[in-house]
Amino acid sequence: MPRASPSIAEPAIEVVDLRRTYRTTTGTVRRRRLEIEAVRGISLRVEPGELFGLLGPNGAGKTTTIRILCTLLLPTSGEVSVLGLDVVAHPREVRRQIGYVFGGDRGLYDRLSALDNLRYFADLYALEPRLQRQRIEAVLELVGLAGRGKERVEGFSRGMRQRLHLARGLLHDPPVLFFDEPTIGVDPVGAREVRQLVAELARSGKTILLTTHYMFEADSLCNRIAVISQGKIVAEGTPDQLKAAVTARAVVEIEAYGVPELTVQRIRELPEVENVTTEVREQAQLLTVQAREGSQLTGRLLQILEGVRVERIAAREPTLEDAYVALVTVP
Amino acid sequence: MSAARLNRHLYRAGPAALGWPRQVGMGWWYQLKMQAQSGFVVMVSLVQPLIFASIAMADQQAGNRTLPLLYYALGAGIMGIWSTVVFGCGGALSWQRHQGMLEPLVMAPAPLVLVLLGITLGTATVGLYSMGATLLWGWLIFGAHLHLVDPVAFVIAALVMVVALGLLGLVLGASFVLYRNANSLSNALEYPVWLICGLVVPLSLLPGWTHYLAYVLAPTWGIKAMRAAALGGDPWVPVLWCVVASLIYLGLGVVLVSNVERLARVHATLTFQ
């Protein structure tokens, strides 16, 4: 029987065989119905007080999953609960227990001041009027916007907006927080402050589910990580466990100029090579080659790169990013 | 304050204890604050009604119309209020979606119907700009006499009509949440309602079947009540019908909003794409 009050004995977040299909149409004259499976059987469990990371490329199903957890979308099938509360049967009770912080410029009333934005949501979250001022001051102080509350949001920088998003998410002091790419588009200093705040919240006992594209962010913050690709979880574990999955591999980085596509293809075709990614860095190209074993790899790569101007070639320890690339790259 | 202590306050208070009037009232106030700063809303509620008021009053002064200038000024004012409600409610909700606000609003534990009600009542209140503008314009430019036969009834009729239009806006707004191109529907609703409610020509000139439509629309009763209070007649019967229409809109709005929220969660229409 579904419960309507939060439980601390159960996992903070539990997802069992979650599926979500979007239905859409295409074509102007001959309209065709399309079904897009955004999430294809995800199961995960986040314990109270844990900081859990959900990593994956664009379109992998991270935001769909987080929106279902936040009661903004209904699942096509599967079971989803927050603090033991079913998100389909008890959306209002779930909403009292969670805070949702998303990245980007939108999601605030630009023509209102930061204080008015927070006051309005304090009312919508049923915060008692006598507590509102105290709580609003506390969250503004916490996110570093003390003294800026009376300014209109339209004059805020991206970083300040992001901090205001955070303040709103924390206003009712929810035990479970969802952060959807909270540092996207924020300058490095601002992003570091956001990360520090997330870490502080995790230390204070909040359960946090975080999605991010930045590997170092997940590596430094998360207790556990699930890597999601094409709507499925392809790996789950601590950052060290995920890195360990690729430690047997060799990673070689090559900085070179004017590497032809044919040469990259020849590297990919080497029997021991698992994966090659290319990245343009000003005029140079950075090739990251992952291989099963690396004893002879550097020499063989140099042979293939004969005639190409190679600035630097070096083997290094695999990182979480290497693990992530290996997991989400479709062969 | 510790998290546990704060949570205790929250759970004891809850939305019911905080009271829906505060949630609607604060929504109304902040919406009013934002709409009053919007150039588009000010233009819709001021420029267009002044043009219609000028045409009607100039026509009256040319001897083509027989009723007092105040009659036409009131009609043009209510046309402006209706435009503000139609564009404001449709535009406000698609604007909320465009700004990424629909998701945070739906995610708040307050019932969505209260959140939307605050928005639509605030929008309808901004429409009062139109009424003030056409009355002032008629007095300044055309020399209309602003003597009201029953000023108290006039104010009550205006307030009841604003609430009724805000609630009608809730019904429209609830439907608009599901449609991403709400503004095109707004355009289609503006002129027919002006006609059907007797704001452009008297109802008696329209075919009989249109009267049934007119009876369910609050502007019909609003203009009757305000004209009766201003120029003489019984304003209270139309005020009562305005209240009845409001209650019907409220009931319809509650049902529609809960349905719309469920469908939006099924079809993923809360975000702007």
Could you describe the 3D structure shown?
The complex is a heterodimer of chains A (331) and B (273). In chain A, 33% of the residues lie in helices and 31% in strands. Chain A has two domains: 13-237, P-loop containing nucleotide triphosphate hydrolases (Rossmann fold), CATH 3.40.50; 246-328, ACT domain (Alpha-Beta Plaits, 2-Layer Sandwich), CATH 3.30.70.260. By secondary structure, chain A is α/β, with parallel strands linked by helices. Chain A has a six-stranded mixed sheet, with helices on both faces. Chain A starts with 12 loop residues before the first strand and ends with a helix. Chain A has eleven helices and 14 strands. The longest helix of chain A is centred in the middle third of the chain and has 16 residues, at 188-203. By secondary structure, chain B is mostly helical. Chain B has one domain. Helices cover 80% and strands 0% of the residues of chain B. Chain B contains twelve helices and no strands. Chain B has helices at 3-18, 20-35, 39-61, 69-98, 102-107, 112-126, 128-142, 151-178, 182-196, 208-215, 218-231, 236-267. The longest helix of chain B is centred in the last third of the chain and has 32 residues, at 236-267. Chains A and B meet through helix 2, helix 3 and helix 4 of A and helix 1, helix 2, helix 5 and helix 12 of B.
Shape label of chain B: globular
How would you sum up the major sheet of chain A?
A: 6 strands, mixed
The number of distinct helices of chain B, counting runs of at least 4 residues, comes to: 12
Which regions of chain A contain 5 or more consecutive residues with pLDDT less than 50? none
| Tally of strands of chain A | 14
Quaternary structure? heterodimer
- Tell me the strand percentage band of chain B: under 5%
CATH superfamily of the largest domain in chain A: P-loop containing nucleotide triphosphate hydrolases
Strand order of the largest sheet of chain A: 6-7-8-3-9-10
Radius of gyration of chain A: 23 Å
Q: Which stretches of chain B of 5+ consecutive residues score pLDDT under 50?
A: 1-17
In the CATH scheme, what's the topology name of the largest domain in chain A?
A: Rossmann fold
Please give the share of residues in helix of chain A. 25-40%
Termini separation of chain A (Å)?
45 Å
Question: Could you report the average pLDDT of chain B, rounded to the nearest whole number?
Answer: 81
| Beta-strand fraction estimate of chain A | 25-35%
Total DSSP E strands of chain B: 0
The backbone outline of chain A, from C-alpha atoms, is globular
Give the overall pLDDT of chain A as a whole number: 86
